[in-house]
Specification:
The chain is α/β, with parallel strands linked by helices. It folds into five domains: 1-78, no CATH class; 107-113 and 130-195, no CATH class; 198-515, Rossmann fold, CATH 3.40.50.970; 554-802, Rossmann fold (3-Layer(aba) Sandwich); 810-938, Rossmann fold. It is built from 33 helices and 24 strands. Strands 3-9-10-8-7-4-6-5 form an eight-stranded mixed sheet. Strands 14-11-15-16-18-17-22 form a seven-stranded mixed sheet, with helices on both faces. Helix 20 (554-564) runs antiparallel to helix 21 (575-588) and helix 30 packs across helix 33 (923-938). It starts with a helix and ends with a helix. This is 2-oxoglutarate dehydrogenase E1 component. InterPro entries: 2-oxogl_dehyd_N, 2oxoglutarate_DH_E1, DH_E1, KGD_C_sf, ODO-1/KGD_C, THDP-binding, Transketolase-like_Pyr-bd. Keywords: Glycolysis, Oxidoreductase, Thiamine pyrophosphate. One of its GO terms (biological process) is glycolytic process. Its EC number is 1.2.4.2.
Length: 942
């Protein structure tokens, strides 16, 4: 037929779909098309200007247009019958394309078979002009994998088996032709049909038997206790086993899993190998590890080493709060840190796996943020395998019409062109087949892939919930469902793979082992030491006041400065940047005071030069939101970032630590959670997240509340994450003033975080170096003043860097005779300079002492007590803040201040009046409030 295609005039423009199919084959493999067509396409590719066109299809498309207008020179016109035959051929190709795009809509995905299947005209041959008379006619299949020519009836049968069986595929939204062709070869070549040997089938049955038996055992042993059962979705356990056992053959050495509650206990026991007796102890209120607060059993993480045919694979299940999907970016951050620790530039050795719920996957915005991170330079992890436990009911009371505005809960994944494999949970073999394909795709293309495991949920949202209240018809169907294990066992018995008594024997063996609190067989390696494991013991049991030398000799400062202020000769920096670099050289020489940008850069330079990595991310972190950092220098004559950007701190020495500064996506929740996860796996790095404005952290409150502030007390997880929050009242309105200091202080207890509000540039230098050099890993939150970045009085002399360290309390060095002092003002942050200026204006420098509390938590009680001892005779001690009275530090530290006062001393307050808004929006009102509270602080007449 191909010969006839060329020798006869079939090349009309109306037949473009057929020829485009051939051209798709040619692009993937030129040898896959007949020689005549290959010659024709070769000539088109060599046509003038073809190489400059945006897409390879453009030459062929233009050729079709010309053929339609002029015909092909030297070829006779088509006869009517030939024309009709060609139209039928085009119709077949359109039908193939329709199945590839829409076939999943007719797939057999629902184990409950509740919904009537929608009829899609595009999948009806008649829609394309094909009739019963055409069923025996041989047609060219185009790019459909298989024989080049088949009867129409067989083409349709292959399409239905591939796209409308127990597996439904969505991949035509992918733009990359190579990826689409890979998927077509994989699934069309196999007809989406797994072909497992008897041993593999028995292993799958054993996995789902373990999953079901554990749930039923717990249901009878611990009646009414929450466990978020996996019943109905047991095939997920078999899929995870497939993933683990086959991933090591492709170089995977670690798998990091993030998941919410559904099936978590099952994964802990049957995938990670947690001892059943340990799980039972938790059901009985006996935690295996005593933590200050601990957490419920279905939030706990676990890790183990699983043997496979290609060596051990380390599996970690991340700790997770009840806010479901928030764990996902945490996992991605942890994976990225582990990959970098291994120097795994191909991102093959550490694999992220995220297990979602159907309602949460599309409903929670953190997933959009996590997907958005997946292919970016600073956050990519080489692709994630997503498993959606789609029990079709969300959180019990929901209806799909209320849960989402898309057909599938997985449609959100199309934003990054991830392939989506919908699979019927009652077919465990199809589920494992989909998992193997997902693994192979991820390892080939370094991209995310989604498995939509369509199943059901046998019980309510939790074991105390009655789903019949809101889903009576669904649960009538579920009550009659025999269960995935029973169906699969029956299938294997029918196939002759095993006998019915063998299948029942698996249940008995598993229950007998559970009665002993053991596993049926040993699945976890013991006493195995991983090469890349992190040793956290140096950071355990240390104190925030642990002494550490953070000063640098001036010679070192000058040497470092010379390095990070030197720009390649062929670079043309912006004139402003040139001035900044010149000023920094002067600062290092002691010719002018050191500003905040220089202090920060010195800290990074000193750390990376000594082998410590630095990772800084935020929405404007390269330049700095307030144009103060300039960690990335841009060539003014080059457009492309990779050619026109220079990062001095990456060029400090041959054996330096990594320095990565990232202008992140506009999503605080996902990015902050990601950086937290990264920090939990990289204690030897300074990991920083910077809010563009301090109050933007509001969008990441879940990450703050459920990980940063409480991760250690709940789960024993240490993190040295540093958070920069611009904070300060400058008359810029409510959204650019407050970083909500009061919220952070409210979360402080049990030495869980460090909250600092530095007022001098040198303080910034020392606190950043202290964060890494001191063996103490707690989150550090730095409330930074925008105004002070360029405020001369807040800049520091060079000797503040060559000696000393971070000072939690800074006393008033201007007071030479403490006995003359009548009032002591305590404050934090930039308001100090307003008070100093107010004191000077009123001529009360000797009567009012101003003490700065630079570290608000852990509260520096001893240091402040020592400073206040100088003024034991003073009757009035006043806390002054620029925030409204109901915000800021006042109500969170008042009791600490009162505890330090003498019996005859009184604690007073001065600040803005209580307000529902963080700050006023009118400059005139801002100035009036500032003047009023400064006046109150200076008024000694009271």
């Amino acid at each position: 037929m191909m010969q006839a295609m060329v020798s006869h005039s079939y090349l009309f423009g109306g037949n473009a779909p057929f020829i485009e199919e051939l051209y798709e084959q040619y692009l993937a493999d030129p040898n896959a098309v007949p020689a005549e067509w290959r010659t024709y396409f070769d000539k088109l590719a060599q046509a003038p200007g073809a190489a400059e066109r945006d897409v390879p299809h453009q030459p062929i498309q233009e050729s079709f247009i010309q053929l339609a207008k002029k015909g092909v020179p030297g070829q006779r016109a088509s006869a009517a019958t030939e024309w009709e035959a060609m139209q039928k051929q085009v119709a077949v190709l359109k039908l193939i394309s329709a199945y590839r795009v829409l076939g999943s809509r007719h797939a057999n995905l629902d184990p409950l078979k509740r919904m009537d299947q929608e009829t899609l005209a595009e999948l009806d041959p008649a829609t394309h002009g094909l009739t019963d008379a055409d069923m025996a006619v041989q047609f060219n299949v185009g790019s459909l994998v298989g024989p080049q020519k088949l009867p129409l009836s067989e083409i349709i049968a292959r399409l239905k088996q591939t796209y409308c069986g127990n597996l439904g595929l969505e991949y035509m939204h992918i733009l990359d032709s190579e990826e689409k062709r890979w998927i077509q070869k994989r699934f069309e070549g196999d007809l989406s049909t797994p072909r497992y040997d008897a041993d593999t089938k028995k292993r799958i049955l054993k996995q789902i038997t373990a999953a079901e038996t554990l749930e039923r055992y717990l249901h009878t042993k611990y009646v009414g206790q929450k466990r978020f059962s996996l019943e109905g979705g047991e095939a997920a356990i078999a899929a995870l086993d497939t993933l683990i056992q086959n991933s090591s053959g492709q170089g995977v050495q670690e798998i990091i899993i993030g998941m919410a509650h559904r099936g978590r206990l099952n994964v802990l026991v049957n995938t990670l190998g947690k001892l059943p007796r340990d799980l039972f102890a938790e059901f009985e209120g006996k935690p295996m590890v005593e933590l200050p607060s601990g957490d419920v059993k279905y939030h706990m993480g676990f890790s183990s080493d699983i043997p496979t045919a290609n060596g051990p694979v380390h599996i970690s299940l991340a700790f997770n709060p009840s806010h479901l999907e928030i764990v996902n970016p945490v996992v991605e951050g942890s994976v990225r840190a582990r990959q970098e620790r291994r120097n795994d530039t191909e991102r093959k050795q550490v694999l992220p796996v995220l297990i979602h719920g159907d309602a949460a996957f599309g409903g929670l915005g953190v997933n959009q943020g996590t997907f958005n991170l997946s292919q970016t330079r600073g956050y990519g992890t080489g692709g994630t395998i997503h498993i959606v436990i789609n029990n079709q009911v969300g959180f019990t009371t929901s209806d799909t019409r209320d849960m989402r505005s898309t057909i599938y809960c997985t449609d959100i994944a199309k934003m990054i062109e991830a392939p989506i494999l919908h699979v019927n949970g009652d077919d465990p073999e199809a589920v494992c087949y989909a998992m193997q394909a997902a693994l192979d795709y991820r390892m080939t293309f370094k991209k995310d892939v989604v498995i939509d495991l369509v199943c059901y949920r046998k019980l309510g949202h939790n074991e105390g919930d009655d789903p019949f209240l809101t889903q009576p018809m669904m649960y009538k169907k579920i009550a009659k469902h025999p269960g995935t294990r029973a169906l699969y066992a029956e299938r294997l018995v029918a196939e002759g793979v095993l006998k019915a008594e063998e299948a029942e024997g698996l249940i008995r063996a598993y229950r007998d082992a559970l009665d002993k609190g053991e596993h049926v067989e040993q699945t976890v390696l013991t006493n195995y030491r991983r090469e890349h494991a992190v040793d956290w013991t140096p950071y355990l049991g240390t104190h925030w006041a642990h002494p550490v030398d953070t000063a640098l000799p001036q010679a070192d400062i000058q040497r470092l400065t010379e390095k990070f202020t030197t720009i390649p000769a062929d670079f043309k920096p912006h004139p402003t940047v040139q001035k900044v670099l010149a000023a920094r050289r002067a600062m290092a020489a002691g010719e002018q005071s050191v500003d905040w940008g220089m202090a920060e850069t010195l800290a990074y330079a000193s750390l990376v030069t000594n082998g410590f990595g630095v990772r800084l991310s935020g929405e404007d972190s390269g330049r700095g939101t307030f144009s103060h950092r300039h960690a990335v220098v841009h060539d003014q004559n080059r457009e492309r970032w990779d050619q026109g950007a220079y990062v001095p701190l990456r060029n400090m020495s041959d054996n330096q630590g990594d320095f990565l500064v990232i202008d992140s996506i506009l999503n605080e929740e996902a990015v902050l959670a990601y950086e937290y996860g990264y920090s939990c796996a990289a204690p030897d790095k300074l990991v920083i997240w910077e809010a563009q404005f301090g109050d933007f952290a509001n969008g990441a409150q879940v990450a703050i509340d459920q990980f940063i502030s409480s991760g250690e007390t709940k789960w024993g997880r240490l993190s040295g994450l540093t958070v920069f929050l611009p904070h300060g009242y400058d008359g810029q309105g409510p959204e650019h003033s407050s970083a909500r200091l009061e919220r952070w202080l409210q979360l402080c207890a049990e030495h869980n975080m460090q909250i600092v509000m530095p007022s001098e540039a040198a303080q910034m230098f020392h606190v950043l170096r202290r964060q890494v050099l001191r063996p103490y890993r707690k989150p550090l939150v730095v409330f930074m003043s925008k105004r002070l970045l360029r405020y001369k009085d807040s800049m520091s002399p060079i000797d503040a860097f060559t000696s000393g360290g971070f000072r939690p309390v800074i006393g008033d060095a201007s007071i030479t005779d403490p006995k003359k002092v009548k009032r002591v003002l305590l404050c934090a942050g930039q308001v100090y300079y307003d008070l100093v200026n107010g004191r000077k204006e009123r001529g009360v420098e000797e009567e009012i002492a101003i003490v700065r509390i630079e570290q608000l938590y852990p509260f520096p009680t001893e240091q402040l007590a020592a400073e206040l001892a100088r003024y034991a005779h003073v009757k009035e001690v006043m806390w002054v803040q620029e925030e409204p009275k109901n915000q800021g530090a006042w109500y969170q530290i008042r009791h600490r201040l009162e505890g330090l006062l003498g019996a005859k001393q009184t604690l007073l307050f001065s600040g803005r009046p209580s307000s529902a808004s963080p700050a006023v929006g009118y400059m005139s009102k801002h100035v009036a409030q500032l003047k009023a509270f400064v006046e109150e602080a200076m008024n000694l007449a009271k």
